[in-house]
Design goal:
Low-confidence stretches: none
Strand order of the largest sheet: 2-3-1-4-5
Largest sheet: 5 strands, mixed
Distance between the termini: 30 Å
Length: about 160
């Protein structure tokens, strides 16, 4: 179900926990699986559950609770923008409107070309850097003006 390389990464994560607490690596294992597959199909989550010796429902609970996990195929680039109050007061709503107009999509939609999916996120812990967005859960972008958003979208389109 997962490549040998992904299994090796999960095994490394398992070394961080006592042998009888393998389930503690569930978040890391899901992130590794998602990095390989692009999203978390039920079959992928079931594999993670078996590998960690957990009931599948326990893995589903984690995957559905955190918005960093993709439970359906998304665009090549997932853009998650924080719209909590501090970011909203610092221009997040305007940034959202600009992104939506530029890409022609709303939240939880993917652009026609399949390049971008837009998600609304909760606090990213960088209120002083607002507006803040994440690209594919890995790259945080701060102080996102319309020009910076345009530059980012152009870079990600390549």
């Amino acid at each position: 179900m997962l490549s040998a390389e992904s299994i090796k990464k999960i095994d490394h994560e398992l070394t961080k926990y006592p042998p009888d607490q393998k389930q503690s690596a569930v978040m890391s294992a899901l992130a590794i699986a998602q990095d390989e597959k692009g999203w978390l199909a039920t079959e992928t989550m079931d594999f993670v559950a078996r590998y960690l010796g957990m009931p599948p429902i326990a893995v589903y609970e984690v995957a559905t609770f955190y918005n960093m996990y993709n439970l359906q195929p998304l665009g090549k680039c997932k853009i998650t923008i924080c719209t909590n109050l501090p970011c909203a007061l610092s221009g997040a709503n305007e940034a959202v409107a600009h992104i939506q107009k530029k890409l022609g999509i709303g939240f939880n939609e993917t652009s026609i070309d399949g390049k971008f999916t837009l998600k609304e996120g909760e606090c990213m812990g960088a209120c002083g850097d607002a507006p803040v967005l994440l690209v594919n859960n890995k790259r945080m972008c701060s102080f996102m003006s319309d020009d910076m958003i345009d530059q980012l979208l152009e870079e990600l389109s390549k």
